[in-house]
Design brief:
Distance between the termini: 30 Å
Radius of gyration: 24 Å
Shape: globular
Strand content: 25-35%
Order of helices and strands: EHHEEEHEHEEEHHEEEHEEEHEEEEHEH
Largest sheet: 7 strands, mixed
Structural class: alpha+beta
Number of helices: 10
């Protein structure tokens, strides 16, 4: 019933109208449609590579759509392409199945674009599992009384002044921090411009670059103040570091904030346990003095092209494994067995007797490094059949970090 196709420019007006109706948003520009159409054309002419929209139409009427952006990310230390999905909307008055039909075409488009991963921030994770998306990136939040933090001074923290030199130093720190983080975006100039627009000196947040004793940048941090009920906490919005000294150097800044705030909220990779940095004699058991630790998912990911991902996956040692992907109804080219011979060279062939069977959801989470191998059988639709020694070389815990939005 639906015609599934791409749309751009002036046709984006109906998409914006649908978004406002379904999500109860307000957009005054829609009251001047002709002017807004010109703006939409200009915006789409300046979109980055890999951008597309896909809609479900009956005649000329748009009933559902998604908007996709192209990104370069790191996977196991190698750069590759990812598609970020946002703006998923569907008119509840239309026939059912529009989004399902869109995703079939969208994954084909991603594959054509060489986007071997896709990521989205879902309103409901369970809904998007049917399309192969599952948990990947995860943050650890530490909520610590500032008086409990004690760090030796490493180097110096310099307030970000907006200069080209300090911008170059920030970008060096991020480059070193991100290269070992799966899903971390390789920022282009447009993304850096947006980053700095949100960090104007002396305006919207406090930003610092940390330099070691040799005056080499090894950390970057920015934070905002949160005032509530007459108290003030500090929330770290960005924290990148190249060494543990850089991390501790950034956090040592809060030593000088004790008279201004009660607690510090820090977002860090979940693998990093900073409890060693916290004074354990400061009042364990007192709710007002306890350091709190929580984990939060940061969206869901899926592999768009299994074979291309296997070509890039880091596998130590030598050996051979065979995996079988089952039940990928939206990117059917992924289904089947893959035999991977690895060592000095890598050879991937279709077919073979599987050592492990898994659906695309489990494969996506596992290959990105969300889970240790010993936890894989806790996932639905995973059967480990044999060859665990070599499977552990393919599936293991890895750092994952994605903070860009789309």
């Amino acid at each position: 019933m639906y015609t599934i196709r791409e749309f751009y420019g002036e046709e984006g007006l109906a998409y914006r109208q649908l978004m406002c109706m379904m999500f109860r948003w307000q957009n005054a520009q829609l009251n001047k449609p002709e002017e807004f159409k010109k703006q939409l054309v200009e915006e789409d002419e300046n979109q980055e590579d890999g951008f597309f929209r896909m809609g479900a139409y009956i005649g000329d009427k748009l009933y559902a759509a998604i908007e996709c952006s192209g990104h370069t990310i790191y996977f196991d230390g190698t750069q590759c392409k990812m598609c970020g999905v946002g703006g998923v909307v569907s008119d509840f008055n239309g026939p059912k199945g529009a989004i399902k039909q869109i995703y079939v075409k969208a994954f084909e488009k991603m594959r054509q674009n060489g986007q071997i991963f896709s990521h989205l921030y879902p309103f409901a994770e369970n809904y998007y599992r049917q399309f192969g998306y599952d948990a990947s990136a995860e943050y650890a939040f530490w909520n610590v009384p500032v008086e409990r933090m004690s760090f030796p001074q490493y180097g110096k923290n310099i307030y970000f002044d907006g200069s080209d030199k300090m911008k170059a130093d920030i970008e060096k720190v991020y480059a070193q921090f991100s290269v070992n983080q799966n899903l971390a975006v390789v920022k282009n100039r447009t993304q850096w411009r947006l980053f700095y627009n949100n960090r104007v000196p002396y305006q919207n947040r406090s930003s610092f670059v940390h330099y070691n004793d040799e005056n080499v940048p090894d950390g970057y941090m920015d934070f905002i103040a949160i005032k509530k009920d007459g108290t003030q906490d500090l929330e770290v919005k960005t924290l990148w570091y190249t060494t543990m000294e850089g991390l501790k150097g950034c956090l040592s800044l809060f030593e000088k904030q004790k008279q201004y705030c009660n607690r510090v909220i820090i977002k860090l990779p979940k693998e990093l346990d900073v409890s060693a940095f916290i004074d354990s004699t400061g009042g364990w058991g007192r709710k007002d003095k306890d350091a709190l630790h929580s984990l939060t998912n940061n969206g869901t990911s899926r592999v768009v092209d299994v074979e291309e991902v296997l070509k890039l996956a880091k596998i130590d040692g030598t050996g051979q494994v065979c995996i079988e992907i089952v039940g990928d109804h939206y990117a059917s080219w992924n289904n089947g067995c893959y035999t991977i011979e690895f060592g000095k060279e890598r050879k991937i062939t279709k077919g073979g007797k599987p050592d492990i069977q898994m659906d695309i959801n489990a494969f996506s989470s596992a290959i990105l490094g969300r889970y240790a191998f010993d936890n894989l059988e806790l996932l639905e639709n995973v059967r480990i059949l044999s060859n665990c020694e070599n499977l552990k070389k393919l599936f293991y815990k890895k750092p994952i970090w994605l903070e860009d939005t789309f």
